[in-house]
Amino acid sequence: MPQAAGDMRAGVVPSAPPAHRAPAALAGDHGVWLFITADVFAFAFFFLLFTWGRVGNPAVYEQSRHSLDAGIGLLNTLVLLTSSWFMVLAVEAAREGSRPRTVRNLSLAMSVGSGFAVSKVVEYTGKIQAGITMLTNEFFMYYFVFTGIHFIHFLIGMVVLAVCLHKARTQALDARYRVWIESSGCYWHMVDMLWIILFPLLYLQR
Amino acid sequence: MKTASSMRSHATLVWLVLVFATSLSWWLVEHHAVPARVATTAALAIAAFKARLVFLHFMELRTAPLVWRALFEAWALLCAGAILAGYWLALP
Predict the structure, then answer these.
(1) What CATH code is assigned to A34-204?
(2) Nearest to A34 by CA among B53, B19, B20, B68
(3) Which one of A21, A55, A206 has the shortest CB-CB distance to B86?
(4) For a surface tag, which of A10, A132, A206, B71 has the fewest beta carbons within 10 Å of its beta carbon?
(5) Contact B15 A70 (CB under 8 A)
(6) Using CA atoms, how far apart are residues A74 and A17, in angstroms rounded to an integer?
(7) ipTM value of the model?
């Protein structure tokens, strides 16, 4: 086709889509987004409770904060961020229909993510061995309840990623699978994002 | 045209910024190089910025209908703002 050949020579790809934005749409399933919305607002309420308590008794909160290891808080954040990054790469690979890259990035997201469980268990064990529990004071009640509820979200996320990985190995990477992995990705990023706020809330208010 | 590899490098750049911002907030608070008020305020502002990056780039709200994007951006701003307001109120 002379016209197409001319276009190619001019550096124009004949099949290139028109240069306008794709219609705005949410990634993944709308039901998952409703859940995410409810969840982040529940956590916003937790942040307010903690802030309210801290205003009432800043000395106790500051003293209790010194019993936390901000280095572990930092590690937790970096682990979740890195796991989230592999999840983004997995979603992109699934959209491109590349099974090996989808499987590899999901596996990496899970392996790196599992580091969060290890560090959380080390952290909780250290606290309990030092005689610090939920009953120690208000700060530690909030600390254990909020990080505990967040940890349950993390565990659910690991199960969801395992299902994504199983499906990527055994099923077609079709439109249905893309909705699955996009929804799972958004949930996983929410778990990461909630920790992004919990980290300064609990560890970094000096 | 946006290629697959350019999208991957985009995600990687966002991840690098997130890692750097996280490390910076930790360093500011832990290394006492700046006054506590400055460090804490910066750490919470950085957290709001990071949450926004995750919303827009990882959860892809930058290509979502505006109402969703606005809702989550407002959430990040309000959470960090409320925590910061409480922090400043509690100062001696």
Answers:
(1) 1.20.120.80
(2) B68
(3) A55
(4) A10
(5) no
(6) 43
(7) 0.94
